[in-house]
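User: My notes are a mess, but here's the protein and zinc ion's SMILES. Can you give me a structure?
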Amino acid sequence: MKNERIENNIERIYETDAYQTSFTATVVSLSRDVSGKFLAELNRTAFFPEGGGQAGDRGRIEDFAVEDVQKIDGKVVHILDVPAHLEEAVKERLAPGREVPGEVDFALRFHRMQNHLAEHLFCGIAHSRFGYDNVGFHLSDVVTFDLDGALTKEEILSIEKKCNEVIWENVPVKVHFPSAEEVEKMEFRSKLELSEGVRLVEIEGYDMCACCAPALHTTGEIGVIKVVDFMPHRGGTRLTLIAGRDAYEDYVRLDEEQRKLMKLFSAKREEVAKFAEDYATKTNAMHTEILELKKEITGLYVEKIKRIIEDKTAGLLPGNDPAICFFMKDADEVMVRNVINECLKTYNGILCGFRGNDKEGYRYVCGRKEADEKESLRDYAKAIKDALGGRGGGSEVMIQGSVEATEKKIREFFDEN
Ligand SMILES: [Zn+2]
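Assistant: No problem, the inputs look usable. Here's the predicted complex:
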């Protein structure tokens, strides 16, 4: 097998050497696309064009930023990000025939290679153990891919463990360009319909996969692999993993979170979840207790308001039920509504419950059993607003709002009306 390839008269440095990121080349053409972007083609390049789920490299040609690289009609097209004031300069300095220096952003390339080879390794082990194939692959901040078979959590963890052991083994990674006859006799994973020369990335002893992207020299450079998410997907499994730098950064982040929780729960590092569970259990019990107490308090208020109603209506003829206010200062709105609804079962006048305090103002809910054409409840909301400030509104059987007045003023309003 020969390990070099010149395709469409372009020497593709990235296919054989993923670590050579500085190079010089001759400009073959410079054009502009429909959006006005400058597109440069070179006779040789270290820039990897987007493919196989991996994004195109970034970097510089001369002093011009390469924002993306695409394979178009078999050619490698460098898409440049050129500010308007440099348009003349780019035309001159990247004129066809000029020799230019190129520099790939290696930190970004390396980061992507870590993620990409991590995916190869995981899928290689999954394939050899279960015979599953990768049927979808996407590389962004995380590596997401779909295997065409179901995996349990235990199976996934077992593959993940094996992957990390292969990383520690620091196995060589090799790139091959087999001839058509050689391909016939070879076993390898392939997720592409291969139309041109086959390029294979081999993790020695563990995986052989058709792939067009730059590859690391050894598995050790992946650093670490961790599956962070998995779910059943179309009869198979969708997995998300992080590797290398991403996994390290994730660990730093999680460690920071863990420290906060340890402090919050006064718990040891490995006991945080247990403390959080205890906390949740206690909180739920407390919540139930609070609901019970609210119910009890509501019942006591109902009795109290009924006594007030009796006092206020003593000696009055039926049909003359007055509007009555009451205060439940620390109650919530639901409690006030429940008290009103309960008392309205036996009262035909307007009942108005207030909660809050003189300093911050009061919120109110007013209700009546049924709409009264002679005395509109909505008009009553307006009367409260005019006398006590604030705002309010609602229906003919229930209004709610807020007032800016003190308890004394509120009581005066109800006594006068
Ligand atoms: Zn690949």
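The chain has a mean pLDDT of 92.
User: Great, I'll file this with my notes.
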